[in-house]
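User: Here's a structure from my thesis project, written as structure tokens. My advisor, Dr. K., wants to see whether a designed sequence matches the one we expressed. Can you design one independently, without my sequence as a hint?
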């Protein structure tokens, strides 16, 4: 006899709301319980079952929007993330590693206009690009591009990216302040995330969400910025309203840098948010292990007495060790001290068993999980490359994918908008000639084309990787421009011109033969060493008449 077994599904127990509804309206309460039972029986995902033993105690918060889930905790997340970066070596090291590899010495501009749209020849386009890059360096390489006259554009990249990682987001204003002796008036003013908040600290309610004023479509209209940091006790409580887009040009007037992780999210999440608790607990555990090792190294002795305590502080030979203070309340062992104990007294020594041999494996196991959350391979996170070449290279390549995504994000959200705003001023002032720049959006986009290259990833075995780059160029799957940008972030034309100058200098100094010099004829195979090869005689080498 075949017996069919059915899995038992627990009927959901009535909640307090179910009881209230059933008390007021029994029919509505019965319908509510029926609906809940049907929902419990339906569905095919084990993770969504409420009756399974493994998930019965899994209580989650009510499903809210991206802003309602984030904004109530955002201030605390920022404070704790910054505290970890300041005081926890692992957290600070993770942020520093990402900033150093994504930004490094700064993302460099390489103008790449669309000459097909503009109707320019290759030489004319190259000449315009060099001129535009020269004018750009005039502005960005000087601290005058910073409203505080402190950092140049490359240092500001480091600042805004680091602030985004620590605080979740950062804001940059683009004011126009023309100072004497300056060619351009565009300035960059970096605003910390804490200063952008609702006027008079009102609760988040449309259209104000975390200091961002939204329109009906969800797009930002304006940002409300405190004139001073809210943590500044001497500062006032006055807000300024800055339009998100220029009323005439439609271009962004405020750059809001953050990664949107959910639809409808209007403020950023700190980079360390998923691992804040883990890193803090790991930091406490590390401090406890260090303290235990210190106690073990000091060889602490406890005197166990069943009678009146012995005043060790007045015993001869006690408290005279180096570093003792007169106000110390604990007795310390001097060099070679021997103390006679009183009746019913015995010595007990502390034995914390440190250093703990399990400390390093446990910490490394936790850091592997932390690295997964931060998108950093374990080897890169702890700078621990002890595996094989293949494993180390795989870790670096995986990390470089993450760096490349973040670098592209920084270029799109910060570098490119700043460049387009600067170029508009350069064209308007006549320092850069770009016909049709303000007449047609397509033409303007063609003039604004650019690539942003940063430091290269480095190499483990340079010779093998150079041979691979040479092979890619030979097969046509890459170009010299791409390989130079990947190697060190430089412009291949600048490298080519420098090599040409070096070649010419070596030829003029007689250190190298000219490229078009005729090479001496090689000796035939089998000619004895030292024999001068016979030069052909033109009269004898004429073809015989037929």
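Assistant: Designed independently from the structure alone:
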């Amino acid at each position: 006899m075949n017996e069919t077994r059915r899995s038992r599904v627990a009927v959901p127990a009535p909640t307090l709301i179910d009881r209230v509804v059933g008390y007021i309206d029994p029919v509505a309460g019965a319908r509510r319980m029926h609906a809940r039972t049907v929902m419990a029986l339906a569905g095919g995902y084990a993770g969504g079952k409420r009756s399974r033993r493994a998930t019965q105690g899994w209580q989650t918060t009510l499903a809210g929007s991206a802003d309602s889930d984030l904004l109530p905790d955002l201030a605390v997340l920022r404070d704790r993330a910054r505290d970890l970066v300041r005081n926890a070596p692992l957290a600070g090291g993770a942020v520093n590693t990402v900033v150093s590899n994504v930004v490094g010495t700064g993302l460099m501009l390489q103008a790449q206009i669309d000459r097909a749209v503009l109707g320019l020849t290759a030489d004319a386009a190259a000449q315009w690009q060099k001129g535009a890059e020269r004018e750009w360096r005039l502005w960005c390489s000087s601290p005058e591009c910073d409203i505080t006259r402190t950092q140049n554009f490359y240092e500001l990249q480091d600042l805004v990216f680091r602030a985004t990682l620590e605080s979740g987001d950062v804001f940059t204003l683009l004011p126009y302040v023309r100072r004497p002796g300056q060619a351009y008036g565009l300035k960059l003013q970096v605003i910390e995330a804490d200063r952008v908040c609702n006027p008079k600290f009102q609760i988040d309610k449309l259209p104000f969400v975390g200091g961002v004023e939204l329109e009906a479509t969800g797009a930002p209209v304006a940002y409300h910025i405190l004139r001073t940091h809210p943590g500044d006790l001497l500062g006032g409580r006055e807000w300024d309203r800055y339009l998100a887009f220029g009323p005439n040009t439609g271009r962004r007037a405020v750059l809001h840098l953050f990664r949107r992780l959910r639809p409808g999210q209007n403020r950023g999440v700190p980079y360390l948010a998923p691992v804040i608790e883990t890193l803090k607990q790991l930091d406490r555990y590390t401090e406890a292990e260090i303290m235990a090792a210190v106690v073990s190294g000091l060889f602490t002795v406890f005197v166990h007495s069943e009678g009146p305590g012995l005043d060790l502080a007045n015993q001869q030979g006690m408290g005279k060790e180096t570093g003792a203070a007169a106000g110390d309340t604990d007795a310390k062992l001097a060099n070679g001290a021997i103390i006679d104990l009183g009746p019913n007294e015995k010595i007990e020594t502390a034995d914390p068993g440190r250093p703990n041999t399990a400390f390093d494996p446990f910490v490394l196991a936790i850091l592997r999980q932390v690295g997964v959350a931060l998108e950093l391979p374990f080897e890169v996170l702890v700078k621990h490359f002890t595996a094989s070449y293949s494993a180390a290279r795989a870790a670096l390549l995986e990390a470089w994918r993450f760096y490349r995504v973040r670098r592209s994000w920084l270029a799109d959200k910060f570098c490119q908008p700043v460049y387009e705003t600067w170029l508009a001023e350069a064209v308007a002032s006549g320092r850069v000639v770009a016909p049709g720049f303000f007449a047609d959006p397509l033409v303007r986009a063609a003039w604004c084309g650019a690539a942003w290259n940063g430091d290269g990833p480095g190499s483990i075995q340079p010779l093998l990787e150079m041979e691979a780059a040479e092979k890619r160029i030979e097969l046509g799957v890459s170009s010299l421009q791409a390989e130079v940008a990947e190697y060190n972030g430089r412009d291949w034309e600048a490298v080519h011109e420098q090599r040409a100058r070096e070649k010419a200098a070596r030829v003029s100094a007689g250190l190298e033969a000219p490229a078009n010099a005729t090479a001496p004829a090689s000796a035939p195979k089998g000619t004895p060493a030292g024999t001068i090869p016979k030069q052909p005689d033109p009269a004898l080498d004429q073809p015989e008449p037929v």
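When you compare it with your expressed construct, this may help: Residues 79 and 353 are 36 Å apart (CA to CA).
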